């Protein structure tokens, strides 16, 4: 997509502002580094932002660290601990994590004006900073760190505070740090295959291919198969609702190369759903954007029953399609859903089931929630807003402030 393609959605003034900001950064080499090129929200965001930043005149690149399966098992443990899980890092796990960092330091090109490091997996790369006095280093945390496990946060903090600045998705995630903190929410691309408009024929074709009949209301959750997304709890919600309203459930998602735990979760979900023809478990490849789009558009109600959540772009996607959403009041979700205005928030299985029943029985109310939710996304969570804030972030690296809510 080109910037001009977004003008009908956001207006010409937004596009002109992006060009104006970018002129002050023309030619700057910005190197993004994360742990996977496919699967998960971070890869999706970079896939969309990098080409547009290049179109604006920056030199923006995207590299991925290397790691063996054992390394990613350890960083998955990091992820769970950052979400508050009460386990301990073992000395040999720390040693392997640090060794992987050293290996990547030796083999990666870390030249650039701005080094933009995403999440804990590549955090050790900041050791290179001492040899690159003119480079600016950013650490971007896409994870809900409201109440992190103290051991993992203390360990990572020694690296975080070597960066010039940090970036978090929500004010709730801000931490006590010696470096500046920027608050920037993620975004969706309204023109991507996952979010663009689809015809009724295209939607019906996807349902037919996936063997899903549209003969009764559809409740859907789209997410990785991850305990923190609580897919088992989603099945519990569906069964409570099913006692009162005949409906069907879709659990659609996939795996990420840096999440070795997902196959186990998928197996448990499949086992729990056995014997119910109205539960559709769809393990989709990362290229299934049209399928996800169609499933969300075909749904009557969309859930996001996460236990912890960095932001939940699946909520943003559902709202953009004007669907009523019932989601957990965790992480960045309350930034997107204002309860009983742009969606519904819940903290329990029973509460989630209650709201789903309300929506199924009140289609006018459900439609109004969806309409307001879509406008909320248009105003706050589209890619052009994200571009603007990243440009401001890069400019701010050359000026001083403390905590900045861009």
What secondary-structure arrangement, pairings included, does this model have?
Blueprint: H1 7-10, H2 12-23, E1 29-34, H3 41-55, E2 59-64, H4 69-82, H5 91-107, E3 114-118, E4 136-140, H6 150-160, E5 165-168, E6 180-183, H7 200-209, E7 218-222, H8 231-242, E8 248-253, H9 262-273, E9 279-283, H10 289-298, E10 301-304, H11 313-320, E11 325-328, H12 333-336, E12 344-346, H13 349-361, H14 363-380, H15 383-396, E13 403-404
Parallel strand pairs: 1-2, 1-3, 3-4, 4-5, 5-6, 6-13, 7-8, 7-10, 8-9, 10-11, 11-12
Helix pairs in contact: 2-15, 4-5, 7-10, 8-13, 11-14
Largest sheet: 7 strands, parallel
User: What radius of gyration results from the CA coordinates?
Assistant: 21 Å
| Poorly predicted runs of 5 or more residues | none
Helix-strand sequence: HHEHEHHEEHEEHEHEHEHEHEHEHHHE
CATH topology of the largest domain: Rossmann fold
Total of helices: 15
Relevant CATH superfamily of the largest domain:
Glycogen Phosphorylase B
**Structural class of the helix and strand makeup?**
alpha/beta
- The chain-level mean pLDDT equals 94
The fraction of residues assigned to DSSP E strands is 5-15%
Strand order of the largest sheet: 2-1-3-4-5-6-13
Instruction: Sum up the overall morphology in one term.
Output: globular
Number of strands: 13
Please give the domain count: 2
CATH class of the largest domain: Alpha Beta
């Amino acid at each position: 997509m080109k910037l001009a393609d977004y003008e009908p959605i956001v207006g010409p003034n937004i596009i002109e502002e992006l060009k104006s900001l970018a002129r002050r950064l023309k030619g700057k080499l910005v190197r993004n580094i994360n742990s996977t090129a496919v699967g998960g929200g971070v890869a999706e965001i970079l896939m969309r932002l990098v080409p547009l930043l290049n179109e604006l005149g920056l030199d923006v690149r995207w590299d991925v660290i290397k790691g063996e399966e054992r390394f990613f098992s350890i960083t998955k443990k990091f992820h769970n601990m950052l979400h508050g899980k009460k386990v301990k890092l073992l000395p040999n796990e720390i040693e392997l994590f640090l060794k992987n960092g050293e290996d990547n330091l030796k083999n990666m090109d870390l030249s650039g004006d701005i080094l933009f490091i995403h999440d804990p997996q590549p955090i050790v790369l900041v050791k290179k900073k001492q040899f690159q006095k003119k480079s600016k280093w950013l650490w971007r945390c896409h994870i809900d760190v409201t109440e992190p496990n103290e051991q993992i946060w203390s360990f990572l903090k020694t690296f975080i505070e070597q960066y010039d600045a940090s970036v978090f998705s929500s004010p709730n995630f801000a931490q006590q740090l010696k470096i500046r903190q920027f608050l920037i929410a993620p975004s969706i691309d309204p023109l991507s295959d996952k979010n663009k408009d689809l015809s009724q024929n295209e939607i019906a074709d996807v349902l037919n291919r996936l063997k899903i009949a549209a003969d009764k209301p559809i409740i859907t959750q789209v997410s990785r198969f991850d305990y923190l997304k609580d897919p088992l709890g989603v099945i519990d919600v569906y069964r409570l609702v099913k006692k009162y309203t005949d409906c069907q459930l879709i659990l659609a998602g996939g795996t990420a190369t840096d999440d070795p735990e997902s196959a186990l979760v998928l197996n448990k979900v499949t086992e729990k759903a056995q014997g119910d023809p109205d539960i559709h478990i769809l393990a989709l490849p990362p290229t299934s954007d049209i399928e996800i789009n169609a499933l969300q558009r075909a749904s009557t109600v969309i859930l996001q029953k996460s236990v912890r959540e960095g932001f939940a772009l699946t909520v943003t996607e559902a709202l953009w399609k004007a669907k009523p959403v019932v989601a957990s009041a965790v992480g960045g979700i309350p930034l997107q859903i204002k309860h009983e205005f742009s969606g519904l928030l819940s903290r329990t299985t029973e509460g989630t089931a209650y709201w789903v029943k309300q929506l199924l029985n009140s289609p006018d109310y459900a439609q109004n929630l969806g309409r307001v939710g879509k406008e909320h996304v248009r105003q706050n969570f589209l890619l052009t807003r994200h571009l603007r804030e990243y440009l401001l972030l890069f400019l701010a690296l050359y000026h001083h402030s403390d905590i900045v809510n861009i």
